[in-house]
Amino acid sequence: MRRRNFLAATSGAAVLAACGAKSAPPLPPGALTGASEVLGHRLRQPDFPAPTETRRTSVAIVGGGIGGLSAAWKLARSGCEDFLLLELEGETGGNSRAGKNEISAYPLGAHYLPLPPREARATRQLLAELGVLQGDPDAAHPTYDERYLCHAPQERLYTNGYWQEGLWPTLGVPAAERAQYARFQEFIQELRQRRDGAGRRPFALPLALSSRDPKMRALDRMSMRDWLLGEGYTAPGLHWLTDYACRDDYGSAAAQTSAWAGLHYFACRDGEGQVLTAPEGNAWLARGLARAATGRVQPSALVFRVEQRKKDAVCDVYLAAENRSIRVIARELIWAAPLFLIPHVFAAPRPEWLAAIRGAEYAPWVVANLTLKAAPQTRAGQPLAWDNVLHDSAALGYVVATHQQLRYAPGPTVITWYRALHEEAASRPRRLLNTRAAWAEEILADLSRPHPEIRELTTRIDINRHAHAMIRPLPGRLWGGTRGSFELGRPGIQFAHADVSGLSLFEEANYRGVLAAERTLARLGVSYASSL
Amino acid sequence: MQRPLLVSVFIVASCGLAYELIAGALASYLLGDSVMQFSTVIGVYLFAMGIGSWLSKHVAGNLLVRFIQIELLVGLLGGLSAGLLFLLFTLHAGPFRFTLYGLVLLIGILVGLEIPLIMRILKREVAFKDLVAQVLSVDYIGALAVSVLFPLLLAPHLGLVRSALLFGLLNALVAAWALWLFRAQIGPLAGMRAQCVAVIGLLALGFGFAGTFVSLAEANLYNEDIVHAESSPYQRIVITRWRDESRLYLNHNLQFSSRDEYRYHEALVHPGLAALPGARRVLVLGGGDGMALREILKYPQVESVTLVDLDPRMTELFSQSPMLRELNGDALASKKLKIINADALQWLEQTQEMFDFVVADFPDPSNHSLGKLYSTAFYRLLKQHVAETGRIVVQATSPLYARESFWTVVATLQAAGWQTTPYHALVPSFGEWGYILGGRREYRPPTAIPVPTRFITVDALPALFHFPVDMARVAAEPNRLDNQNLVRVFEREWGRVQAP
To answer: What is the ipTM of this complex?
Structure first.
């Protein structure tokens, strides 16, 4: 007779969430920010003032994300000080920028770096330079400063009303499905150990150093989901985890993602899942790189026209803060901005570039920082971890900014909520354009399932939208031949964005930036020790 | 007549769900395993309601009178249920689970009778399809109201005991209201009026004295007289006294007993400080009770002591209460002392100060937050604040009961670059207890303890540094922030000790 009482009692959280809109206090204040899309979209109708000043430099770097900063870092380390980095935003860092309030710094985008494998030499050198990697950067398992290693407990998963340890769903999963987990993990372990005749791993990071074995590269032609099904993997938990991994790293669902990329996520690293992180996410890495470019960065600078000439490149740059344009003439150009901008900016883009860009898709992201009066409570299961993932959610869960702070007292905190809009593309955004209020309601509803008290705890919600947050490794995009023209570059122009790799990863952007810088140094006749 | 009865359906439905939630929450709180407790309580309750509904066909006579009597009985049983169960649990006065499920069964049967009775009463006036629609929808709305209010308002603000009494009162008031409304149809009223007054009076009295009642029950939990109890933002502080013995509990864990705390604190301070005749600047981390400070201040060469304790209530309490000031020798009033209420880790990160002797007297590493205070990162940070010839001492749980935990702390200090000297002492209230000295140079035991002591003497020292076989070193990994293995080891070892 009162079956619904039972439902009301057991799903109290859901009931609360449903009633939240009516009885809850007004939405916490906050800001809605994003990549400078208004400024960026002016590229579609270029009506910029004519340049009033000409600056000459040896190297112009367009874009100050990890790719551009890495190029600047390598140039400066090699004694080439004559370069100018042009950045669209008010500050460099790209996806690795951070915000800060009176409680903590917090990420606006990328928030961690898995311990890099040996092949990612440039990334390891950077970490050594920053003092975080101690001892020999080329060691199989170097020592890291424990303040930057993610503190325990690292991750937990909210499933069936309970917080379980780790991200593999185990609660109530039958033995037959766990056996599939084990089979998959054994396969991944074998992939990590495997070497081809040239000593290359099937899935290396940077991916350019991977084995050329056509059997492996064929994996790029199917989706991760289809590969799993083809191999007889049917366990829902395994499908959930791989889908989560694809959404988390690539902004696309497993059914949209190249199986090569999906397997790369699992097989490219051997750091036992350990990551480096800080309250401000990856901003400390961006800052570490940017030190090399001090004084040679032009912020709020929109490059609206690039023309390659025989001996130099001409960049026309709109300085938004001054509402005027300048002309930068450089002997060498390093393009470190997203590749989709090329048709809008280059006076004469090469046909193979345009062909390569056609069909590229970018994942939009929404990243929200919630300032909380106190840490959210755990009703059942494992205590609050660094990464807290909800199983039945389109979002990716939340990360606790104060987790890495050296303090033990409870207190206010900032949590960062991540949502890859895997169901839509940057070129046709719908939900991305929702108002702040709509997003805030959705975020609070999502988090109120494990934490019914979240609305009362939240004092601020700041939402950051990234329309073109990362390029998607759709099937065929990695080894289908489209990236080649960007990988090779041209005399006078090198490409230094993670888009060139097709995977939006720190190590890839770092590798592309350093590679572009080294080729540029060679052309300028500057001697350098390779970091690759 | 129809509307008042529907209003009472709403209240009755709210109360019905409230008892179920309270019983489930109380059982989870006292017995743990909330999924198990909620499932079984809800299961028994729903089953009992089924019995009640079935039994309702046997209820005859004046239905209004029966309804009022049932309301009074539900109010009484439901209202007192939480208090009764809480008392029973703390007094160990009877079979707890039996009483719990018995009460849930009884209340469930009575609640199961309510709705069928109301429907029979209303049947005379309302068409059946409207009747079912109205009564059941109001019933469900009442349930929703409570399921929202309970976790948000009632449980956190009123507590379980008072919430139960509140709903008991509501049931009894419905009875009184019905009695007044239908006085014409009920006949002679005197007896029922008295019943209503008695039940309402009893429940109201209970509501008024619930605070006293809860502390009474807490006293039974401690088996001692509570002389002070408060909740600071950081912890529950309880001080008890039994005859001439005082005890401090933080979050229900014993911190000291006045009977033998001198053993604990002398062992903590003197082996280290007596060996440092040049020590002028001393730092105490934790230890807001001032006991370690009392021992430190016995050394005339100590010029300044900095005490960093997170909880200002602790240092206030131990510098104000006459009884506690007698225990710590009024050490917190010392002119040499500087008290800082801050997070030890954060404070150490920002300070430039250097010290000759540091006492790290933190609670045991029972969770990840406290585990940070026993990590290589913390001991490295500490090293930046200890003079070249200085030394630290760390309380490090029991090498007997938590042997691997103790040696994990030793391994952690060593990994952070300290030369370690572990030792132990018997503190009857705690058992065999462990400490670790750390320094940049090798430790040499003092040749004299130059201050008055009751336990630590030079003759007694060699035995402290000797570890019998059952406490001898075992292999252990350092406790790093990124693995926090100490928390897991500690939980496993103490879980074994405390298991029945």
So the answer is: 0.79
